[in-house]
Amino acid sequence: MLVHSPLTGCGVWGPVAAELGRTGYETDVLDLTGVVEAVPFCGDGLIRAIAQSVSGRSTILIGHSRAGPLLPAAGVMAGDGVRGCVFVDARLPAPGHAWMETVPSGFATRLRQMADREGWLPPWSQWWGEDELIGLIPDPAVRESFVASCPGVPLAMLEQVYPPAARWRAGPAAYLQLSEAYQHEAATARVLGWPVATVMSHHLALLTDPDRIAKALHDLIGQLPGWQPRDT
Does 76 map to a domain? Predict the structure, then answer.
C-alpha cells in the first residue's frame, strides 16, 4: 500500500506503482486528499483511512515524506494485516509531538503567517519558488499534474499531536533515503537495525526516477522478516 504525504496528491506514487506492478506486486495507491480537505479536519482521519485501506490483507505500508509518522499508528489500528513499513524520504514517528514541532521554528512561524483567516494554507507546491519546483520536476506535464494534485492544507493538521505508536522502533521496517535532507532519519534507521538503502536524487524522485525507486523498494521488502519478495 503506497501512502502519499498529506501535503501532496496520491499521483506522486503513480509511476512507482506502475513499475512495481510490472514486476508482479499487487500494489494499491491510497488517496488521502479527501481526508485532508474535509471540513472540519478530523484529527484521527488520516490514520484511520490508512488502517482501513489494509482491510485484513497481508500488507506492507510504504509511506513518503510526511506519511511516515502516520504508518506505525495506522499499523497498530489495522492489526495483524500489516507486515511491515517502509519509510521513503520520510519523517520518523514523533509520538506526543506535532509536525510543527519537528521543523525549524522560523519555518513554522512563516507557515502560520501564510494561513488565511479560516486556518488554511496554500498547497505545498506553492510554499517554494517556481524555479525550485522546475529543478525537481523538469517535465512540464508531470509538474503541472503534480501541482494540480496538491490540496490546500489545514493548519490544524500541522499542529495535530501524533498519537502513540507502540514499539515502532522494533519494526519490522526499512528506510529508503532519496535526498540529503533526510540523512538524519536514514542514520536513525541504521541505528535501529532497519534495512536502509539510498537512491540519492531528490525528494520528489518518485516522479522522475520511478524505476530506480521501485528496484530499491523491491530489495528492501526482501529484507523484511517473513516477507517473500516477488521475482524480478
Answer: yes
CATH value at residue 213: 3.40.50.1820
Give the range of the structural domain holding residue 88, as residue numbers without chain letter. 2-221
For 88-124, the DSSP string reads: ES-PPP-TT-BGGGGS-HHHHHHHHHH--TTSEEPPG
| pTM to 2 decimal places | 0.94
Identify the bridge partners of residue 61 per DSSP, sorted by sequence position: 85
CB distance 10 to 30 below 8 Å: yes
- Going 101 to 48 to 206 to 136, the CA torsion angle's sign is negative
Question: Tens of pLDDT along 136-182?
Answer: 999 999 999 999 999 999 999 999 999 888 789 998 999 999 999 99
Any idea what the Cα angle at residue 214 is, between residues 31 and 170, rounded to 5°?
75
Query: CA 64 → CA 109, 188, 230, 231, distances in Å?
Result: 24, 17, 22, 24
| CA atoms of 171 and 102, how far apart (whole Å) | 22
Residue 184 lies in a domain: yes
Classify residue 183 by burial, with Cβ atoms within 10 Å: 0-12, 13-18, 19+.
Answer: exposed
Non-local (6+) Cβ contacts of 47 within 8 A are: 70, 73, 74, 77, 163
The DSSP H or E segment spanning 84 is strand 82-88
- CB atoms under 10 Å from CB of 182, counted, come to 24
